[in-house]
Amino acid sequence: MRVDIITLFPEMFKTVTDLGVTGRAHQKGLWQLKTWNPRDFTHDVHHTVDDRPYGGGPGMVMLAEPLQKTLEAIKHDLSAQGLNHPVYLLSPVGAVFKQSQAQVMMNSSGFILICGRYEGIDQRFIDTCVDAQLSLGDFVLSGGEIAALAVVDSIVRLLPGVLNTHESALQDSFHESQSGLLDSPHYTRPEIYQQIPVPEVLLSGHHKKIAQWRREQSLALTIKYRPDLIEKAKANHQLTKQDLDFLTVLEKS
């Protein structure tokens, strides 16, 4: 997989190429990252990438031309490899990025992310060059870089060979194999900590009972903190009769 990112701060992306599971995967060649700075595609002495907004108002707006020239360079580089990747802009306007989309993008050959800055980007560039917009939620960041890091991390960790065990990704919260529910609680050594013991079932070695306990805990956590995910799972027929019976017991307790 190849990821291209347009950013004024390419150094920020060393966190995914040099550290943690994404860094190890990058060193193994399981994925590639290329960052592109729009300042490198300007021709004035100040390498200007922004200007005052028409109509007045605070802040500055990113110019369309440096971004378009950067994107053209990326697409030319991709075409030499026979690739044509979709273009995503990190923006509060976008649809909220979810695990299901991470799984879809993980199966692609790659994608292009654009990190905005200042008050925003000239709308004409968005209208003519961007395929879709992505958001992390209803809050505002200083730029798209942190959101892009989150998107890249969520996708790369799903690639085969990135995690030590494939089952780790399958048990993640929101994963389709978990019916889109929250993950169950986790415990490790010592067996008793602060006078709180590990649940007995996890020490039993009885895999079927452990699986049932984890499923029930997942359901209990989800109904408590994200009931909307339960309703979605019901609507998509992702819950078994056993799941529904357990939820009924919870509601009555």
Protein described:
- The protein is an alpha/beta fold.
- It folds into 2 domains: 2-156, SPOUT methyltransferase, trefoil knot domain (Alpha/beta knot), CATH 3.40.1280; 171-252, tRNA(m1g37)methyltransferase, domain 2 (Trp Operon Repressor, Chain A, Orthogonal Bundle), CATH 1.10.1270.20.
- It is 40% helix and 15% strand.
- The strands form 3 sheets. Strands 2-1-6-5-7 form a 5-stranded parallel beta sheet.
- Strand 8 (192-193) and strand 9 form a beta hairpin.
- Helix 8 crosses helix 9 (227-235) and helix 8 crosses helix 10 (241-252).
- The longest helix has 19 residues, at 207-225.
- The mean pLDDT is 94.
Brief account:
The chain is an alpha/beta fold. The protein has helices spanning 14-18, 20-27, 64-79, 99-106, 123-129, 145-156, 166-170, 207-225, 227-235, 241-252, and strands at 2-6, 32-36, 50-51, 61-62, 87-96, 110-115, 132-135, 192-193, 196-197.
- State the fourth-level CATH superfamily of the largest domain: SPOUT methyltransferase, trefoil knot domain
CATH class of the largest domain: Alpha Beta
Structural class estimated from helices and strands = alpha/beta
Going across the major beta sheet, what is the strand order?
2-1-6-5-7
What attributes does this structure have?
253 residues, 2 domains, Alpha/beta knot, 40% helix, elongated, 10 helices, alpha/beta
